[in-house]
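Submission checklist for the structure archive. All mandatory fields must be present; incomplete records are returned to the submitter.

[x] Identifier: PAP2 superfamily protein
[x] Organism: Actinokineospora alba
[x] Residue count: 230
[x] Sequence attached
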Amino acid sequence: MRAAGSEPVVGHSGGVERPLLAAPRFALALAALFVLVMAAIGVDVAGNTEAGPFDQAVFDVLTRRPDLAVPLTLCTHPAAMIAIMAAMVAIALRAGRPRVAALAVLGPVVAAGINTVVLKPLFDRTHEDSLAYPSGHTTTLVAILAVLVLVAAANATPGRAVATAAIALVLVAVGAGAIIGREFHYLTDTVGALFWGVAVVIVLAALIDFAAQRVGDPPSVQPPLESTSR
């Protein structure tokens, strides 16, 4: 018996499109936890205009080699992230995966939008007179990578899904380290963005799955092969 929300649907290419979330209840519980962690960090740094001791220690180390940080920040450049999103949408649509295409756009846009309009003014943590928590560049990068990890988790073997998640974390660490090295943000700004970006993508994936089941699915779905052979 499948968990609620895990029923496959027919994609535009005639194949079976898997839901974005393989275990929606667990994923949403994880998203709620991540939002709480982001909020807890935000409350701790709210209103700060300077770094705390830990943030400052990391900042001092990573800003020693700005020559290395400059090229590494290319992965968080808006043009690069838009290009990646466009490629993900094109590949998803070609494969008959409209849910993935929708998440590839909505995930980064919604996460970054709410972050800019709501979270940054709410926490009012500043760095060089600019609102800094959570980091917007890190939020967008994390949301893009979270889409890839969710797709891998729903479609690949557990080993490949874990490998994808590990690679994504490395890329986030590189991007966040470069952002700190360029003196754009403190470490806590990027950590909060990590939890926020993942949480938003999970929630949007659940909403997309729910909407597809209610209004976007075909009226009938062919039973699995094992059922028809009995």
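[x] Structure attached
Curator remark: The chain has a mean pLDDT of 85. Residues 187-216 form the longest helix (30 residues).
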